[in-house]
Amino acid sequence: MTSISAVLIHFPLFFPHRSRVTKSYRPLCVLTFRLNYLLHGLEPLGYHLVNMLLHGVVCILYYRMCSMFLPELSSFVASLLFAVHPIHTEAVTGVVGRAETLSSLFFLGSLVAYSGATAKQVRGARGARVATDWRLLLLAMLLATTAMLCKEQGITVIAICAVYELFIVQKVRGWELVQFGEGVVSGKGSVPPWLADMAPRVFVLVATTLGLMLARVHVMGAQLPVFTRFDNPASVAPSPSRQLTYNYLLSVNAGLLLLPSTLCCDWTMGTIPLVESFTDVRNLGTVALYLTLAKLSYHALFVAHRHHAQVIIMSLAFVVLPFLPATNLFFPVGFVVAERVLYMPSMGFCMLVAHGFTNLLDRVQAKKYLWLALLGLLAVHAVKTHVRNFDWRDEYTIFTAGTEGQPEERQALQ
């Protein structure tokens, strides 16, 4: 390639190919690779430099997003933790991980734009209502579309915007949702003011989602992606092993966020054996995860002070919603565990940690020990990330590191 026109001629957005295997359609991410190639060929430095710059910009935008819900200190702590978390090594150091960082950039931009679109309130005869900035709302939907064209999970930012609308803009609490549901079931309920206020914007969110999904089906076809037993052993396992394993993998991903000590570039080859019965002790991890999510959700909806509730709800939304496409809930995915897909969900995790840290800081006397613990955590994560980068130097080093952390994979390779 010698010119931008040559890039555009071969750009998949204009001449899409139908991939029977992965059904991936990421034309904007592909375009950035082609621009890299146009500038410096296959010299790897340029590709890695762009990835690092994208991660830096995402960290800055993440701080801006956190400041919408968290005080300055909490936002800063969350951003630092996000910047150095070892789980991001694959997404940032691995060149193909650019799909994660690029999609996250527009993902966060979309939410920030939606926040601006709903920031102004006016008072009328029926009380206060949101004065929608339709230009910013359309910008938010455009950025959501761009995020999806970088990676499919970018579309989930629209669901994040809906959560933001309901719990941040309208300030709805759990008991209000219960009352509304009871009214709908009994047929005696009326339309609450918050629902009438948000309806036009929610219509835009729903219409955009349906439009993007239909467009994707038109481009890539309606068939599900095709993967092998090697890619995702649980997908071809009988019940209840399939369901138990799928749910257990959720706790594995949560464990990688909590304790990213054992990282691996390839979690196939039996690195995680199937959960074949209800008596498997690993089911306790699944139960613990669901109990934790249920406890946090109940506390946020019905118990916590409004500000704490909003932080927890938005944090959980960031953890859960971007991760949904990778859960095997809607369709089988082509991997067992992929650390790169935790790039977006880790945003919610870091918000929860930062919020918990500042709350503890307000309640305890020995504040210096908390600060030491935080600094220690950041230092350990930074060192782990630095060391992990050397594992990604070439194919030999990354697979050697993988076999050291996963004895099952070493046996399979032998």
TrEMBL record:
GO CC field: endoplasmic reticulum
InterPro entries, sorted: TMTC_DUF1736
Signal peptide extent: none
Alphabetical GO biological process terms: protein O-linked glycosylation via mannose
Pfam families in alphabetical order: TMTC_DUF1736
Keywords in alphabetical order: Membrane, Repeat, TPR repeat, Transmembrane, Transmembrane helix
Domain DUF1736: 222-293
GO MF annotation, one: mannosyltransferase activity
Lineage top rank: taxon: Eukaryota
Transmembrane segments annotated in the record for this chain: 45-63, 136-167, 202-227, 248-272, 284-304, 311-331, 343-362
PANTHER family named in the record: PROTEIN O-MANNOSYL-TRANSFERASE TMTC3, PTHR44395
Annotated protein name in UniProt: DUF1736 domain-containing protein
Native source species: Scylla paramamosain
